[in-house]
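Re: Re: ligand-bound prediction request (bumping)

Still looking for help on this. To restate: I need the protein modeled with adenosine-5'-triphosphate bound, output as structure tokens. Inputs repeated here so nobody has to scroll up.
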Amino acid sequence: METTANGGPLLVMSGIVKEFPGVRALDGVDLTVRAGEVHCLLGQNGAGKSTLIKVLAGAHQPDAGEIRFDGRPVRLAGPTDAMRLGIATIYQELDLVDGLSVADNIFLGHEAARFGFTRRGQMNRAARRLLERLGHGEIPPTAEVGRLPAAGRQVVSMARALSHDARLIIMDEPSAALAHDEVANLFRIIRELTAAGVAVIYISHRLEEIREIGDRVTVLKDGRTVAVGLPADRTPTSRIVTLMTGRTVEYVFPERRPPREDAPEVLRVEGLTLPGHFHDVSFSVRAGEIVGLAGLVGSGRSEILEAVYGARRPAAGRVLLDGRPVKGASTTAAVRLGMGLAPEERKAQALLLEESVARNVSLAGLRRFSSLGWLDRRRELAEVERQLEALDVRPRDPRREVRTLSGGNQQKVVLARWLLDGRRLLLLDEPTRGVDVGARAELYGVIRRLADEGIAVLLVSSEVPEVLGLADRVLVLREGRIIHEAPGAELDEESVLNMIMEGSAMGAVGTP
Ligand SMILES: Nc1ncnc2c1ncn2[C@@H]1O[C@H](COP(=O)(O)OP(=O)(O)OP(=O)(O)O)[C@@H](O)[C@H]1O
Ligand SMILES: [Mg+2]
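Reply:
Sorry for the wait, this slipped through. Here it is.
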């Protein structure tokens, strides 16, 4: 199963070069993938992973280098060329069309299949079969994609890749939007695919995933291949991290400094209810405290954050900031009162992709820099540069269009915005999604520093160890209700996972 009909590897990319104005994103990259393997591509934010797979998907034209597929040199002039060879891609920034239905998205650009479907019902049935295969028969093929939650959109993107009878499926951080149980489901599908001889290129910043699903690892650094063919299950983490970063990084959480006994309550939530999402939720966050919400995707985590921020109107209950009830649901009022939200779907909700980094970072802080009606641009730029440095955004150029930053660096821009402006309360939804292991530790440090300065932080993350390692206090959510509360230091991952899965239909997924 390791080789193709002619005995060689399925894919050989050699000496791939790709330049963008002012950046050599790929500087002679080599990648060899065998049929039936899960080949992991690792590298820091901005190392060139997404660029490389865009070359392979026909979305970027390389400036130099050769691609052989199935032993033959190929030219991938556009996405259709790649598709025709059996190369399907699930992009990091999902490229779904919001206004179209689930089924339309799955079969988009699918000439053969589309013309084969004489009736709409047939296409919907085919879509349903693919969704069921992915363990998500509950997603209606007729639903509008734009209305699905992040995890649902990810599933649709997967279904589209599966619809192509692919020989090579590229997954760029597929697990970033998925919770623990969903990842188990994704891995089951990957195993089915590879057993049938399909090759998978898997990109993720979560090393424990690489160990579980990966066969071999290629490491990129600054647009070059620095290691090939490492065994995914046996290569020590320290070695991988050193290859990626050129230094040794400890994956540690900053020391907790719980808030003082007399620290004032910044946020109080009383009996908050939004039918279908969460029920009778009450808790508080004090100045200097980090409170974490742990729960599955769909447990109501993100919706609670959005209700606090005024983006959703709860049916019952109230939100108090500094002891005063926040009236009406309005995000403008929330920002004025000193709340900041770093949302889960940053591309859709948080970033002006065509605008510069500086403009994106200073969006919320604009008022602080305007004196007598005009903007003090120099001060603003200096302040923005300080934040970019603190978060290690690369490249550190405030004038660059956000669109041209790598996924992880875009995430840092969203966070930098709220760090710039003095906030009372920060609502962080998946703050480290897509951020590499090296930068993660830095980000944790930044969040803890903010808390130490007296900011109240409410944190949501699918990664339970992150919630336990960072939060002073953890609220465990199941099906929209808080079922447990304890200091982060007193909880362990397994018991939290048991609590959040107990009684849910998916509890069995992933157990042998
Ligand atoms: N369209 C573009 N125009 C200009 N520069 C770009 C463009 N796309 C990517 N780059 C640059 O190329 C480099 C590699 O980016 P790439 O997105 O491939 O990184 P990555 O390894 O996928 O990182 P991440 O883990 O953050 O997703 C970065 O310096 C990025 O800013
Ligand atoms: Mg990327």
